[in-house]
Write a structure and sequence with these properties.
- The complex is a heterodimer of chains A (283) and B (303).
- With 283 residues, chain A is mostly helical.
- Chain A has two domains: 56 residues, no CATH class; 218 residues, MetI-like (MetI-like fold).
- In chain A, 74% of the residues lie in helices and 0% in strands.
- In chain A, 43% of the residues are buried.
- In chain B, 77% of the residues lie in helices and 0% in strands.
- In chain B, 40% of the residues are buried.
- The N terminus of chain B is likely disordered.
- Chain B contains 15 helices and no strands.
- In chain B, α4 packs antiparallel against α11 and α11 packs across α15.
- Chain B is mostly helical.
- Chain B has two domains: 51 residues, no CATH class; 237 residues, MetI-like (MetI-like fold), CATH 1.10.3720.10.
- Classes of the chains: A mainly alpha (283), B mainly alpha (303).
- The interface between A and B is large, with 99 and 92 residues.
Chain lengths: 283, 303
């Protein structure tokens, strides 16, 4: 075969797109199916007639109306948002200060800190929720959403600190010296030099903290049983599932709506997140 | 030292030393919240869970290794152990393989399309797992839902998803592969971009085929990254909770339970916190080995 270089390239691209199709079908089918179900009438969901991969009878908004007006869905949404926002703020303050101190200000043990932070991965939520059950109970926070404010940072802070250490260490030392010559204090150096220069890292860490808090399921499921205190994940799971077979439409509507904020955030900020995630292990 | 410094500087408190000292103190103040958080909310609960696992159900008496010994005698516990390993090994293998294939495909696309489809491929990983698991739960519903309808259209028969051990395990693993493949893809894709183009050119001049270029250039260059990513995913997959809890709740008859969900069902649902603690602590050796391998790889990269 005597194909020109351009033709070869074009061919390679075409084959690559073809090979991509099965992956996209696999990745997107569940979303399509959830979306479809959320607009189908109950009678159609439970009917065995027709092709289930399309909407055969008239689409309906009933499921969305139901979850928005006849359940505490809006309350859970607000709870999820409050918790995720406050946890993100806590996480960023703790991580920025910690990462700055570890990467720039040498102190006793600072070199081993990275390893120590990494070791927190040895203690996943699936292990910690049992002692937390006792601790949360002792603090009288069982059955309130506020317990999540101190549980979630255990998931977000280690990773965010680790990302930020990477970004801060990459800032040239010459900038510190220039700032010191100008008489800057440590805090000024952090706010005037480090934070602006490491802005992409800050965005990545913020996004991580928010999405992890939004998505957590185990802790709310274990500690919050009162409907008005629930967040989206456990609220949908424990409340929308009723004893009959007709709950699928509402369940799918609820799960999709709850995913929207996270997906939108990623649509805009994904590049920062990917950069933050991959830079540590590539170099 | 202070006196020497002060005579040199001609000042009572030498600037350089004050700066050093304040620098140290500033550092301590800044890491304090981080230390309190990790010590108070990770280390302390961990130690507490070890302590708890040595108590009786009412938490009134120290019973030594009894919870562990009991567990080792339960068939269910060994079933859960087998499940956890099977789930993790199968899922991680498929995620690592599919992720690599997907990354190679995406890397071949022109830049514009690559960015778009990379973003679309990340959706399963971006979506909160508990919520997408609910979608999968519905997909696997045997009579009214999609999978069985498609299988029947293709000439197969209805499968008892979620109600027979083999199919229920398969369902959990498929969901995990769906969720985790994009993570591997994103790591590999970044790795592929870091391989210098000159290596491929050299290989091409030497007459290497596409397969040889993969075998002798791409794979060796990625091996460290692959090992880090696989171990990282092993930790997360082994400690997974959301998928099994939502799809099967560990059923039918405990055949899909993982350590995490089993600990939850004993500790929270069954009210036996000490034994739940013991179950969860059985995860530790695997997590420790995986974390050790990651740390060793990262440290080697820094040399």
């Amino acid at each position: 075969m005597n194909l020109s270089l351009a033709q070869q390239k074009k061919r390679k691209t075409t084959y690559s797109y073809l090979a991509l199709i099965p992956f996209l079908v696999f990745f997107l089918f569940p979303l399509y199916w959830m979306l479809l179900t959320s607009f189908k009438q109950d009678s159609e969901i439970t009917s065995l007639k027709g092709i289930p991969l399309i909407i055969n009878s008239a689409p309906t908004l009933d499921h969305y109306k139901f979850i928005l007006f006849e359940t505490r869905y809006v309350q859970w949404f607000w709870n999820s948002f409050q918790i995720a926002a406050v946890v993100t703020i806590i996480t960023m303050v703790v991580s920025v200060l910690g990462a700055y101190a570890i990467s720039r200000l040498r102190f006793f043990g600072s070199r081993h800190f990275g390893v120590g932070i990494f070791c927190t991965y040895l203690v996943p939520p699936a292990l910690l929720f049992i002692p937390f059950y006792k601790v949360v109970g002792l603090l009288g926070l069982l059955n309130t959403k506020w317990c999540l404010l101190f549980l979630y940072p255990t998931l977000t802070v280690p990773f965010c600190t680790w990302i930020l250490i990477g970004y801060f260490t990459a800032i040239p030392k010459a900038l510190d010296e220039a700032a010191f010559v100008d008489g800057a204090t440590y805090i000024q150096m952090l706010t005037r030099v480090f934070l602006p220069v490491a802005a992409p890292g800050l965005i990545a860490a913020t996004l991580f903290a928010f999405t992890v808090s939004w998505a957590q399921f185990l802790y709310p499921l274990a500690f919050i049983y009162r409907d008005e205190e629930k967040v989206l994940t456990n609220g949908i799971y424990t409340t929308l599932i009723r004893g009959d077979v007709y709950f699928w439409g509402e369940l799918m509507a609820g799960a999709l709506l709850a995913s929207v904020p996270v997906v939108i955030l990623f649509a805009f900020l994904m590049d920062y997140y990917i950069a933050g995630l991959t830079r540590g292990s590539i170099k | 030292m202070v006196t020497i410094a002060s005579t040199v500087n001609g000042r009572s408190t030498p600037g350089i030393f004050r700066k050093l000292r304040s620098r140290r103190y500033a550092a301590y103040w800044m890491v304090l919240p981080l230390v309190i958080l990790i010590a108070g909310l990770v280390v302390y609960p961990f130690v507490y869970s070890v302590w708890l696992s040595f108590e009786n159900k009412a938490e009134t008496k120290f019973v030594g290794w009894q919870n562990y010994k009991r567990l080792l005698k339960y068939d269910t516990f060994w079933l859960v152990t087998g499940n956890s390993f099977r789930f993790t090994l199968t899922a991680v293998f498929f995620k690592a393989t599919l992720g690599l294939i997907l990354a190679l495909i995406l890397n071949n696309l022109p830049m514009r399309g690559q960015r778009l489809w990379r973003g679309v491929s990340l959706i399963p990983w971006v979506m909160p797992l508990a919520l997408s698991s609910m979608g999968w739960w519905w997909i696997f519903e045997p009579t009214h839902s999609a999978i069985n309808w498609i299988i029947v259209q293709l000439g197969g028969t209805n499968k008892p998803w979620l109600s027979e051990p083999y199919w229920a395990r398969a369902a959990c693993i498929v969901t995990n592969i769906w969720y985790g493949t994009p993570f591997f893809m994103i790591m590999y894709l970044a790795g592929l971009k870091s391989i210098p183009e000159s290596l491929y050119e050299a290989a091409q001049i030497d007459g290497a085929t596409a397969l040889q270029r993969f075998k002798y250039v791409t794979f060796p260059m990625l091996s460290k990254l692959i090992s880090i990513t696989v171990m990282f995913s092993t930790i997360v997959t082994f400690a997974n909770f959301d998928i099994v809890r939502i799809l099967t709740r560990g059923g039918p008859r405990y055949t899909t339970h993982l350590f995490g969900t089993y600990a939850f069902s004993i500790g929270i649902d069954g009210g036996h916190l000490p034994r739940g603690s013991a179950v969860a602590l059985f995860m530790l050796p695997v997590l420790a080995v995986a974390a050790f391998i990651i740390l060793r790889n990262i440290a080697r990269g820094e040399e």
